[in-house]
Amino acid sequence: MKRLAHLLALGASAFFIVSVQAQTPRNGGELVFPVPSEPPSYDGHREETFGLIHPVAPFYNTLLRVDPNDTSGTKPAPSLAESWTVSQDGLAYTFKLRKGVKFHDGSEMTSKDVKASYDKIVFPPPGVGSTRKGQYSDVKAIEAPDPLTVVFRLKEQSGSFIASLLSPYNFIYKADILAKDPHWYEKNIMGTGPFTFVEHVKGSHVVGKKNPNYWDKGKPYLDGFRAIFMRDSAAQVAAVRGERAHIQFRGFSPAERDSIVSTLGSKVTVQESPWDCILLVGINHEKKPFDDKRVRRALTLALDRHEASKALSKIAIVKAVAGVQVPGTPFATPPEELNKLAGYWPDIEKSRAEARRLLKEAGVPEGFQFTFTNRGIPMPYEPLGVWLIDQWRKVGLNVKQEVIEAAAYFGTIRKGDTQVHMDFQCGYIVEPDLDMYKFLSTDRNPANYGRYKDPVLDDLYDKQSRATNVEERKRLVRQFEKRVLDEEAHYLMTLQWHRIIPHSAKVKGWTVTPSHYLNNTLDTVWLTQ
Amino acid sequence: MARYILKRLLAMIPTLLGVAILIFLLLRVVPGDVVEARYLGQGSQFQSQDLMNQERAKLGLDQPLWKQFTSWMAGLARLDFGLSMWTGAPITEEIKLRFALSLQLALMASTIATLLAIPLGILAAVKQDTWIDYAVRVFSIAGLATPSFWLGILMILVMLTVFKWIPPMVFTPFWVNPWENLAQLIWPALAVGYRYSAVGTRMMRSAMLEVLREDYIRTARAKGLWLKLILSRHALKNAILPVLTVISLEFAFLLGGLVVTEQVFNLNGLGMLFVEAIARRDYTLTQALVMLVATFFLIVNFVVDIAYAWLDPRIRYR
Q1: Average pLDDT, whole number, for chain A?
Q2: Does the beta-carbon distance from B98 to A203 stay under 8 Å?
Q3: FRET partner for B311 with CA separation of 20 to 30 A, picked from A59, A227, B102, B156?
Q4: Are residue A175 and residue A291 in the same domain, yes or no?
């Protein structure tokens, strides 16, 4: 008995040691990953593509970051700012910066650098491009009262200001360099990040090596990384299958995941998450009969999203039935409530009968023909386009598909000549202010290709944006969602994208989030061998 | 001959001017521009018309077409291709980076095509209607029917499944590491070379058959000359002319035309650059690449014509 107890104790301690060893980060190794797109420049404040984030983010830090272990990708965590406070009136955000942070050139990072970087983003000087300037329209001033304090003063209260500072694009640059040449960072890299820049061979790869003076002592664990530009998804799959690359951070399709898993077996780990990207159906309100909300509601009522989720998730990068927020995130509508919206009813026959009734009431004849404009990108535009056409046919609509080449697509639908078209949005963080901006009236948002004006909707947006009480904000988000997707049916949601990352089991310390723009600083990532 | 060469060289100027006008106008007819490709395609929520207008002005896209064209022409006259609208980097730098890989691949593929096409074509003609001829014909027809990118995919799959190995993903120049360089480029060169050898083999076979039926060959045979001597000294020189044209033009094509093969093997070559430049509506880079390829085609054509005269003394140019 005593011997058995000893054996059990030994076994337990061995298990404990193995577990601890398995979880203790190992130093060394080079992480290799393909990147499906290459950035036009290195300036995060100017660019919009993940092709910039994946190879360039490891060279920089941001003021705040998303907690690298948070699977919802929404929880703020300190980065260059170690703490922050909000004033009583909610109009001043004060950030205390970390001491001893150094740029790669050895100079100290201070509040002057944070101020200069955010001034460039929020108040760009003439001739300097800032893509996300509109996101900070509430910022009145940025101050640096002492070397380790930064204060953001707002014009109005905001429920999303902290979230807006989590943008992975908002790299902190050196003030002196920006003062000399605000365009310097378009062609050069020099930050405070865990890796220092080694080389970029255009069209081929970017190499970074460990920053030995990184402020977060003990990190990064990797000796370096190599980001290889690879447009073709078959080549990316082959790279992971052939163990030439460890991971691809954007995502693979279900079929690609299966082929990697079938080859590598236990040598691969698969992480999946709902993805903060979605294809929307835009309906041009200036074209008849789509100016009639009964017709628009009929279009959404015809869709069997629940069945599509089961079928399409096997072949395309889509899965969850969603409203205006990614399912499972703080402001998302619970499924039982979502199912009450038009087009989300579990009883599809009832839904389609209502769609037919509405079309008849609106005077739309059986077999009415319209053109659905789709973007010439196979995944997931093609399967979703085919699905939509099939669904609309089931309520007596005859749909012709017109496919426009990818680069010309948004220029075409902006002109307003389309009837019904596929639209797209993708966010770097799940946040109502970001995800719902798309639906504002055209005079407030030129990217609303539905070409409508809805002051009630705009008002709801503003109210939720200013709400600092989470429950109050959730209520307003629900009202907004009901109006945009059900009552007015301005836009139609298809299915939430689904992010699938099959990666080498050697890669540890990386957690999938709903955004392929997040968790790319690589400071927490390590390789088992 | 010197007059002919000069005439040919001068004739290149209007041809290149025609190409320049055509590509300049065609690019502007296609919907979308580099600014839209950069700021509208990413699905971001905040789009600024001011930013887009500012970027267009910076790139000169707000200028009238004639002004854009004349400033491009003025640059070309000084051999200055300008800056890429997408990256802002000098175009010569963008091209130089990819040229070494594309040139090496084109040379390797053309060498493989030539080494296969000429002996196989001759063999099939000499052994006409025997099993050797049939085997060569099957081999060449299979090559014609198989797209090189498909063969490339098949090669990668076989290497992956059987040997658990795939070629390196990053280009290493031959003089830096010959083994690494060949390990990457030999596979696409084989895939492409086989495809083009098929065209060459069939051309060589039919040209050889035609020549072998000529009176002078019959005479040589009647005189008791060795077959090897007849083939190498008399038949090959005449039969090789059309094969030379095909292989030379294919070589020019290979420099910028291996788009899908480059994608499959993740090669950072001119073909990929071409496609990306078009997809991004990078007018300046696309124009420069078209001019480069057109110039290359003209030079290759010119060299082939001169080589004709050298190979066949009956051809005289005026």
Answers
A1: 93
A2: yes
A3: B102
A4: no
User: CB under 8 Å to A433, separation ≥6 — which residues?
Assistant: A135, A159, A160, A163, A164, A464, A465
Q: Quote the ipTM score.
A: 0.84
Q: In what order do the strands lie in the sheet with A491-504?
A: A397-404, A368-375, A420-426, A268-283, A491-504
Q: Is A235 on the interface with B (CB under 8 A)?
A: yes
Q: Which domain holds residue A486?
A: 274-499
Which residue in A231, A412, A424 is closest to B263 by CB distance? A231
Joined together, the tokens standing for residue B50 give: 């001011």
What's the length of chain A? 529
Do A341 and A486 touch, CB atoms closer than 8 A?
yes
**Together in a domain, A366 and A487:** yes
* Mean per-residue pLDDT, A6-29: 57
Of A232, A277, A424, the CB nearest to B266: A232
Q: By three-state DSSP, how is residue A133 classified?
A: helix
pLDDT tens figures, B88-134: 999 999 999 899 999 999 999 999 999 999 999 999 999 999 999 99
Of all residues in chain A, the one with the smallest CA distance to B28 is A408
Check CB contact of B168 with chain A, cutoff 8 Å.
Answer: yes
Say yes or no: B28 contacts chain A, CB-CB below 8 A: no
As a whole number of angstroms, the distance between CA B291 and CA B181 comes to 29
Residue pLDDT, tens place only, A121-132 = 999 998 888 888
Rounded percentage of chain A residues whose pLDDT exceeds 90: 85
Instruction: For residues A513 and A470, state if they share a domain.
Output: no
Q: Which residues contact A510 (CB under 8 A, 6 or more apart)?
A: A68, A247, A503, A519, A524, A525
Cβ contacts of B55 on chain A, cutoff 8 Å: 129
* Residue showing tokens 């309906």: A283
Query: Are residues B45 and A437, on separate chains, in Cβ contact within 8 Å?
Result: yes
Considering only CA atoms, give the Rg of chain B.
Answer: 24
Q: pLDDT digits over A110-169, tens only? A: 999 999 999 999 999 988 888 888 889 899 999 999 999 999 999 999 989 999 999 999
Assigned domain for A257 exists:
no
Residues of A in contact with B259 (CB under 8 A): none
Tell if the CB–CB gap between B88 and A40 is shorter than 8 Å: yes
The radius of gyration of chain A from alpha carbons, rounded to an integer in Å, stands at 25
Q: Give the count of domains, chain A.
A: 2
CB neighbours of B305 closer than 8 A, spacing ≥ 6? B8, B317
Interface test with B, best of A230, A410, A493 (most B CBs within 10 A): A410
Class for domain B91-311, per CATH?
A: mainly alpha
Tell me how crowded residue A28 is: count the other CB atoms within 10 A of its CB: 12
Residues of B whose CB is below 8 A from A129 = 51, 54-55
Q: Determine the residue of chain B that is closest to A231 in CA distance.
A: B263
Q: What would the two tokens of residue A297 be?
A: 């509601």
> In this predicted model, what pLDDT tens digit does every residue of A414-437 receive, in sequence order?
888 999 999 999 989 999 999 999
* Residue A191 and residue A107 in one domain: yes
Percent of chain A with pLDDT over 70: 96
Instruction: Give Cβ neighbours of residue B264 (< 8 Å, ≥ 6 apart).
Output: A232, A234, A235, B149, B152, B153, B156, B188
The CB-side HSE value for A82 (13 A sphere, CA atoms) comes to 10
Domain boundaries, chain B: 91-311
What is the CATH classification number for the domain harbouring A408? 3.10.105.10
Contact indicator for A494, A322 with CB cutoff of 8 Å: no
Contact A414 B40 (CB under 8 A): yes
Q: Which residues of B touch A445 (CB under 8 A)?
A: 45, 47
- Cα A351 from Cα A361, distance rounded (Å): 15
A364 and A290 Cβ atoms separated by less than 8 Å: no
A446 and A519 assigned to the same domain: no
Whether A264 maps to a domain, the answer reads: no
